[in-house]
Amino acid sequence: MAASSVAKKQSVFASSLWQQTVPVDALHPVRMMAWELLERRGLPAKEEEAFGYFPVRALSEVPYLFAEERGLNGSSIEPHILPECRTSCLVFVDGRLSLSLSRLDAIDKRIAILPLHEAMRTYGHFLRTRFAKILEAETDPFALLNLALHPAGAFLYLPPKTVLRPLQVLFVSTQEKAAVLPRLQIFAGAHSTAEIIFSSADAESVLQAPALDIALDEGANVGFKHIAEAKSQAWNLFSTRATLKKAAQFSHLQWCRGSGIVRGDTRAWLQGEGASVNLQGVWMLQEKSQAHAHVRVDHEAPHCQSMQLFKGVLAGLSQSSFEGKIYVRPEAQKTQAYQLNKNLLLSPHAIAHAKPNLEIFADDVKASHGATVAHLDDELLFYLKSRGITASQAKSLLVEGFCREVLDGFSLPSLATQAMHAVDNYSN
Fold first, then answer.
1. Is 281 helix (H, G, I), strand (E, B) or coil?
2. pLDDT at 428
């Protein structure tokens, strides 16, 4: 199906996109709805508030093709699997779920992990209802693109009171100048618990647009750790959608690094009393790299809590933007909601944009929002150097101190080691 709009044909990427054919499988009706919404909405424009600082023009000029299906030797992914996840790793290759390469021996047998199109047979009613609700509110073009054209997604079902900890989800990209669309659909049953880590092993010039969609039933507790990395000519454009019922807890911790362009679009709906969401991120940018965070949390029920904390360290010619919104509906009394974006500039040429936002329609609420942009404290640097610490060590200590509040959330030993090495290498 091709779009007729001349404006859409003006960019190389759009031209490639509109020539795509929506896959015909059990998800075809849902794919078509997403595709039609994407056609009406179009690709992002610089004039849009959510993409005001995003390099729309640069994306439109890249001739990405959609990834083809290719085989991959299992030994080639071995270096990318975390030591703690040797027997609990879900693998996607060029956007396609690969159960043959996945390592699932340590997973509770009651937990279902299926190709998404196969899950429509057993969980079809739930999935169709879920997709319909998500599409009602979906406005992000990359999330719509993923839902319409993802090649072979995965469905993860956690029965009530099951535990999944930890599971690594590894996205592997093998093709240059390819658009890759992995998708993970999750339903967490009542009082289930899960810890999931997203990581990637990408080609040099890939456009990766992963999507996570998760529904948390009453009392479920799910935590995500997401290492979002993009190489110098690569893009990582991920979307996260979460709905929470009564007393459910969802945490999403993002660590953005690399020399390319990363954008995260996160939205959470707190629909049950006592639900809580904790969204944190840290980006460590150098050269001309960019990181953009677009976050919205909807409080729809009373006694819910949300926390947003995003920190950025920027060097060279790097840029970042944070646009967050807390929306509190009239019925969401006794809400507690906090939002903070802090930025540390290590270069006079680095740029950080921040736009925190509150919309509150309830009268019994505790909420705050804020943003800061600062440079390294010269007095602190002088103090550390006066104690025999070298200039690079002093800089490293201050950067580590700034990031630690978020990076401490990467408690898995291998991830904690990676984080500390990244701080040392970044500062030097």
1. strand
2. 64
Q: Rg (Cα) of the chain, in Å, rounded?
A: 21
* Residue 119, helix vs strand vs coil: helix
Query: What one-character DSSP code corresponds to residue 11?
Result: S
35 sits in which H/E element: helix 28-41
CA separation for the pair 45, 51 (Å, rounded): 7
Residues of the chain with pLDDT under 70: 1-10, 427-428
CA–CA distance, 44 with 137 (Å, rounded to integer)? 17
Check: pTM over 0.85? Answer yes or no.
yes
Closest C-alpha to 250, from 342, 160, 310, 187: 187
pLDDT of residue 49: 87
Instruction: Report pLDDT for 18.
Output: 87
Q: Extract the tokens encoding 161.
A: 């009171």
**Token pair for 141:** 């073009």
d(CA 136, CA 289): 33
Stated as kind and residue range, the H or E segment containing 286 is none
- CA–CA gap between residue 239 and residue 213 (Å, rounded): 8
CA-CA distance, 410 to 408, in Å (whole number)?
A: 5
pLDDT of residue 210: 96
CA distances to 79, 167, 202 from 75, in Å: 8, 19, 16
Question: Residues 183, 145: contact at Cβ < 8 Å?
Answer: no
> Up-side HSE of residue 4: CA atoms within 13 Å toward CB?
0
Query: What pLDDT does residue 4 have?
Result: 38
How is residue 11 written in tokens?
């960019």
